[in-house]
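Feature request, filed as a ticket because there's no other form

It would be nice if the structure record came with a short human-readable summary line next to the tokens. Right now we just get the raw output. Example of a typical job, pasted below so the devs can see what we mean:
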Amino acid sequence: MQQFFPSLENRHVYLYRIVYPMIATHSPLLLAIPSARIYDLDARPSTEREWYELDNKKAYYRLFKQFEDRFEF
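Raw output as currently delivered:
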């Protein structure tokens, strides 16, 4: 370690690892969680996207629009 970090000689180095859960879902509610990182695995190559760019969100939107009267109170 000294050859790579000579200035850290005789010091204690603490490394913290933050673990983020990975969830595979089609739920528009889970996809809209703030600060979620969403990877579109259907794209080639897979890319990071926003929730509103996903095809399944668009499918849910069309479904709700088609039956909008049934969702109103």
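Something like this underneath would help us a lot:
The two ends are 65 Å apart (CA to CA).
The mean pLDDT is 76.
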